[in-house]
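User: My collaborator and I are trying to settle a disagreement about how two of our proteins should look. Neither of us wants to argue from intuition anymore, so we agreed to look at predicted structures for both before our next call. Could you fold the first one, then the second, and keep them clearly separated?

Assistant: That sounds like a sensible way to settle it. I'll keep them separate. The first protein:
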Amino acid sequence: MKLSDLKQIVPKLENVAFQLEDGTFVPEHFHVTEVGQVVKNFIDCGGAIRSEKAVGFQLWNADDFEHRLKPGKLLGIIRLAEEKLGIEDSEIEVEYQSGTIGRYNLDFNGKNFVLINKTTTCLAEEACGIPGEKIKLNLSELRSSPESGCTPNSGCCS
């Protein structure tokens, strides 16, 4: 989800709620402690220089159980970040700690924002020697070819 998408959704909400893919909710007394532009410049394992940009949100739980982040307050934080930091309309990446700090993509299910698990991958599979996906065939789909010299009753498989 891009920042512009979130800004269109939030004004229509009565409450801002986040949940994980497994259905558990971020406690409703969470804080948004950071909003900013995250830039990652790196070299992949194949030597290609890469750059990624995202709008970073950090969620944090405190012991102030009466705290509730209202939609207007969240929009105010976003507007301040846009004004002071010049953040771009990029995909949102959410940091949330449950055991350790996790990084999530963001989606919306019509009622709540959903933290979508991110996964790692190799960006240079050919350079690393990672084989491409194998083609799966049924043996009955294989046909003999005259060039191989292997035809029924040729004795090649004896």
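The second protein, kept apart from the first:
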Amino acid sequence: MALKDRLEEDRSSSERTGRNTVGHWRARLLEEINLDELAALSMTQRRARLEKVTGLLITREGPVLAAGERANLIRRVVDEALGLGVLEPLLADPSVTEIMVNGPDHVFVERAGRVQRLENGFASEDQLYQTIDRIVAQVNRRVDESSPMVDARLPTGERVNVIIPPLSLIGPILTIRRFPRAYTIEQLTAMGSMDPATGMLLASFVRARLNIVISGGTGTGKTTMLNALSAFVPEWERIVTIEDSAELQLKQEHVIPLESRPPNIEGKGQITIRDLVRNALRMRPDRIIVGEVRGGETLDMLQAMNTGHDGSLVTVHANSVEDTIYRLQTLASMSDVKLPFEAIRDQINSAVDVIVQLSRGPDGTRRITEVAVVASRNREAFALRSVMHFKSRPIGPDRVVRGDFQPHALPKDLANRLFHAGESMPPVFGVSDDPAEIREVS
């Protein structure tokens, strides 16, 4: 049975809605208004009109409520009629970075890196299914028993994942990841994500056209860091961005954003990140920025870095700089071009210059925990050299992470590369070719 059919059947059951529920007043509102007249109004005018009509209905037919309760009921009824119901105030709250709905009664949000449960949930499972139906219909998708998983995106950019029974055993699950706010390096420094010297060094790396991989776990701020570093790409360069869901907000004039496309209802028409990376090479890019590599497109990205597209930026899921190296190798091996690990290792050694590792602390803060340079070349075994790492202190009773960003000397060849590119580096780093500072990745 399709989702819409199930909803219509459920709505016909009178026991599902009480007289004073949001669903009841929404039904009365739809009976009262003229939909043709409403369609001619702007969204702001529609909301004002519906709020006025709902207020009159509650005054005429509803219970006596306090001013605050009455205003809250009107808002919820209009949100349900126009938008996404109980999700609307959460989407309007800039402090909310993630919304997680585990069935109609369990709604969680993430604020400042910490997950909190909300008291208000959906009135019923029907209401949650209706909200899901509205979301997926916007991208011409459907979700039902035959297609119980779907990825979508709200018009405002938020990424949405839906999974329903029979795959979910606790009812429909809805996860919304907010569109990341664009921060500058200066703002991230003020928030404690890095120290000023590291920010200046990373800016020099970008302007000197070093290939940079930004790694970290889920929710550590990889896209936010990628967006901040992209601000240092010169205005005159042609930039191609490739993402699953367009989140980057580059300020340069010559930017070509590309977005992958999932298959349609018939399972056709899919355009993958790999397809877009290959096509980007034919678009004469000065730089390629990939939101995230997670499969065979990694090999195409490495080859692009090795064929004149210096200064490319990419993110990858990994828990440390060492894990990043091997994850890139594993992902590149997933390509349909079967290369031995040794050949892929050579590609990584030649392509990747710098790895920026991000982590999220127990207190929810996101920061750079290490900046490492790939010290190996060509057929050498993987070797890394740390140029900055965050040394945390023991966590106290307040559970706040404190520590120091500790700089290390840059290898001489990297310092020379910055010099020839006309870039300076903060004096706190220095230059050294001491082999003791290089650690092999085994």
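Some points you might bring to the call about the second protein. Residues 43-61 form the longest helix (19 residues). DSSP finds 15 helices and 16 strands in the chain.
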